[in-house]
Specification:
Elements lengths: L12 H10 L7 E3 L14 H6 L1 H15 L4 E3 L2 H8 L4 E2 L7 E2 L22 H16 L6 E4 L3 H9 L1 H10 L1 H23 L4 E5 L5 H28 L3 E5 L7 H4 L4 E6 L5 H7 L5 E6 L1 H6 L3 H15 L6 E5 L9 H14 L1
Parallel strand pairs: 1-10, 2-5, 5-6, 6-7, 7-8, 8-9, 9-10
Antiparallel strand pairs: 3-4
Helix pairs in contact: 3-5, 4-6, 6-7, 6-8, 7-8, 8-9, 13-14
Length: about 350
């Protein structure tokens, strides 16, 4: 697999990131559209391949980078991969996003039969470690690579079921903490294994959205484990993690500044100007072009306009800014839309 740098670029993504961190001149702001399974469309692979074949996982990342020239590759295991390894009923199809079938954890008494994952021994996780080894050799000198480990509340919900988990936060809080400890320790094992390849860590925990669980439960059940994980990611990789949070997260912003993160990715539901004022003194921000209304369904002019506005605000961020989408761009989006997104990034970044 060969890495091809877009001829419109003056720097590789690794050079750009290093220049920004060193306070030196750079050509444009970093740009990381959240593409997820959409990347499989570039090389004509299936979504199943993207989750199960190490060679094809690597090929998908390289093919997508060679076409778009974005500033970060990302592989799993993600929330689905870790939940799958822990016994969740994850259903994969060739052309549909993964989803959960039946809840596998019917009763908390069953937790006595669970052990945290040993990432280096678990066959499901080794799929992603094998892909990491391929990318570390061919791509890491040119493009920063991140391994996603999902988020504790989200993985727990894949095992227990969202409705049951939220109910249990009130009725059986001790058992929820038992489950979250299992999940967190499993994520830490994956982080440590990925650290061998020099990758940074990415996390996303949509079920921890305060619009879903409320700020009280976020403080009790989500924040302590996310704090532990961001600290651990830095300990085992030497790099701060990236975190994406879905929804209107204003009520929990006071916790974000205490997390050991490189940048916080915000949903397009968030006012980027407000993030500039209240969050950017403490941490870098990524965001937040609307992935559906603008990137998937917008015209070229609408994509350019949204990118220009986000870049204008982002350049005023005190701790730095990464141009991104507010959430994942849907599978099935025309690839030309991403081409326009990157073209706009090069023009306005």
């Amino acid at each position: 697999m060969k890495i091809c740098i877009n001829p419109a670029e003056k720097m590789t993504p690794v050079e750009r990131k290093q220049a920004i961190e060193d306070g030196k001149a750079y050509d444009r702001i970093r740009c990381i559209p959240a593409m997820g399974e959409l990347k499989s469309q570039v090389g004509g692979q299936t979504i199943w391949d993207m989750w199960h074949d190490p060679r094809k996982i690597a090929e998908i990342e390289v093919s997508a980078f060679n076409r778009f020239g974005h500033d970060q590759m990302m592989i799993g295991p993600n929330s689905y991969g870790i939940a799958d390894a822990l016994g969740a009923d994850v259903i994969y199809a060739e052309d549909k996003l993964p989803y959960i079938g039946k809840n596998c954890l019917k009763d908390y008494q069953e937790l006595s039969g669970y052990e945290p994952l040993d990432a280096k021994k678990d066959d499901r996780i080794k799929t992603f470690l094998n892909a990491a080894e391929i990318l570390a050799d061919c791509a890491a000198p040119y493009v920063p690579i991140t391994a996603s480990v999902g988020g504790p509340m989200t993985i727990a919900s894949y095992l227990r079921g969202v409705e049951y988990l939220l109910r249990d936060c009130k009725r059986e809080p001790e058992q929820v903490h038992r489950l979250l400890r299992l999940v967190t320790d499993s994520e830490k094992s994956c982080m440590k294994a990925m650290g061998k390849y020099g990758f940074s860590i990415a996390m996303a925990d949509p079920v921890a959205n305060p619009e879903l669980i409320g700020p009280k439960y976020y403080k009790e059940f989500a924040y302590p484990y996310m704090k532990e994980l961001t600290d651990y990611a830095y300990e085992v990789t030497g790099k701060k993690a990236n975190l994406h949070m879905c929804g209107r997260t204003y009520s929990i912003w006071k916790y974000f500044s205490q997390l050991n993160v490189q940048f916080l990715s915000l949903d397009n539901a968030i006012d980027l100007n407000r993030a500039k004022e209240e969050l950017s003194p403490y941490l870098a921000i990524a965001g937040n072009v609307p992935p559906v209304e603008v990137v998937m369904n917008g015209t070229k002019e609408e994509i350019f306009q949204s990118v220009q506005e986000c870049a204008r605000i982002g350049k005023q961020m005190e701790q730095g800014y990464v141009l991104s989408t507010g959430c994942e761009i849907p599978y099935g989006t025309a690839l030309s839309q991403i081409d326009w997104f990157m073209e706009a990034a090069r023009q306005y970044g």
